[in-house]
Amino acid sequence: MSFDIFVCRFENGEPATLDMKAAHELLDPYAVARDPETDFLLVSTAEGDEAGVYFNNPTGITFNRFGRDGIMDLLAALLQRLDAVLVVPDGPTMIQRDEDRELLPASLMDGPLVVARTGAEIDRAIRAS
């Protein structure tokens, strides 16, 4: 898929800092290319799925041109490790637990919310939107 999806954290409706060190620890073993100047990784899984990963700022990571199963599983692991949500523009916001709804800004609570914990659940929610 060739659109952007965003890994974010929220506390009390406001953006919260992501643990970028933990994100790199999880994603670096999958990096097949990197650009330190732009904080970009091209990650590839054993299944041959790839994604561009941009570490935008302390509150956001963007996945672009992402593949299916392997990348979705990696994304699910990242969301769990960072206690984060996945924001899909013009699609659902994916949370890991129902109680995560309380953390989101009002603008995201107005759109569709989906509890998705696995790569397969994330993939289904994206394809359904």
Sum up the structure in keywords.
9-stranded mixed sheet, 129 residues, alpha+beta
Quick summary:
This protein is of the alpha+beta class and 129 residues long. Helix content is 28%, strand content 33%. The protein has helices at residues 20-27, 69-82, 106-109, 119-128, and strands at residues 5-11, 14-16, 31-35, 40-44, 50-57, 60-64, 85-87, 93-95, 113-115.
Class computed from helices, strands and strand pairing: alpha+beta
* SS strand fraction: 25-35%
Query: What is the succession of H and E elements?
Result: EEHEEEEHEEHEH
- Mean pLDDT level: 92
Low-confidence stretches: none
The largest sheet, given as strand count, sense and whether it forms a barrel, is: 9 strands, mixed
Helical fraction: 25-40%
- The number of strands is 9
Dominant shape: globular
Terminus-to-terminus distance: 13 Å
Number of helices: 4
Radius of gyration: 14 Å
Describe this structure in words.
The protein is an alpha+beta fold and 129 residues long. It is 28% helix and 33% strand. The chain is built from four helices and nine strands; from the N terminus they run ββαββββαββαβα. It has helices at 20-27, 69-82, 106-109, 119-128, and strands at residues 5-11, 14-16, 31-35, 40-44, 50-57, 60-64, 85-87, 93-95, 113-115. Strands 1, 2, 3, 4, 5, 6, 7, 8 and 9 form a nine-stranded mixed beta sheet that branches. Strand 8 (93-95), helix 3 and strand 9 form a beta-alpha-beta unit. Helix 1 (20-27) packs antiparallel against helix 2 (69-82). It is globular and about 35 Å long. The two termini are 13 Å apart. The mean pLDDT is 92.
